[in-house]
Amino acid sequence: MKNRWDDIQINLLEFMKHAAGQSPFYKERLKEISDTNWNQSVFEEIPILKKYEIIGKEESLLTNQMTKLYIEYTSGSTGQPLKCYKSHEEKWKKAKLLWGLRTKHREVGPKDLYAMFYAFNEEDLSTDSVAINNKVMYLSMLDMSPKRLDDYYEALLKYRPQWILSVSTALYLFANHILERKLDPSELPIKYIEINGEMLFEYQKETIEKVFGSIIYNHYGSREFWCIAMSCNYGNLHLATEQMYVEIIKPNKEGFGNVVITDLSNRVWPLIRYDTGDIGRLIGNKCKCGSVHPIIEITGGRSTQYIQSGNWISNPILFHYAVTKVNRLFPDAIRQFRVTQTDEKKFLFLLVPGIGLVEEAELLLKQELQSKLPHDMDITFIHQGKIEIEGPKFDYFIPYQSKR
Ligand SMILES: [Zn+2]
Asked: How far is the CA of 289 from the centre of ligand 1 (A)?
């Protein structure tokens, strides 16, 4: 098998020259790169790009200040989201790639109705339990109590979406609920399920398949890159495009290391050797499906631990939502946070205050949490200078380890 470097190195060099020539950020960083010295080790000497380095100075990476660009934000589980830029044409190409895969798998197209579990509307921060907007039915993850899941099932029966987009934990809860309640999922016309945003564990996949059939595909992607890999009919995650050069940095003896990506398909806001924060390995392309694209295995992330108190259950993204709302109205209010559930009804909310954390901002945070959590919950707030980050992905919620 030919080395991927050989296939891509000419395009990579051209991309480096483009970034060094047009982007203020890369001018210095890539100054050693030239036609005459170009080789794999020169490329590998370019420093790894960490998300925290560019938060707050995202514009310095741009290679074009003139065009109107598409902007979106990473979920920012540490409190600070990254502003991601793409040209409208680049965004369209990325969407086309993704829809191509969906159509190939289960003939799902952009015209089909779908349902997705969500936390909040990115534009107006609304958190309705069921909302329909432009072919999508949104079901809230902020309350996944049994009674609410009954409502979701009824809503799906009525709306009849063709496919579901979900994080694994939310759909796993819902599938279990359908089994427990002995509901008949064949009443729903679901022909495709796409899991994104979280690891999909085998036990989750089995339960979801028991309910909906073998129609589950795993989508590994991010706001920065959109689709990086998609699973095939044999469950292997194949890299989705040759426009991304994927490296595994500092691999251990099983080959797992940091997943670092250079995305040639975003020329307007180049990400060169960007650390995704994920741990994974590349294992060639030997798959029964016949795809020539390498298989990537992602690990390290554990399943999201839910917030539970009695019968009430919610995705901890609830805290992220409240912090996002505060930061949207009071910029630089909360720089980092971590919530620990210390008891069935008690939370410890550590936060690193920024200059925007005025009294009204703190009040808003409390109000938002009170309106989303059960009424008898008690929250203690503590201000800190910094919160230590452990592991590849920062856990902003630590659940209560009850002895149930
Ligand atoms: Zn395959």
From this structure: 4
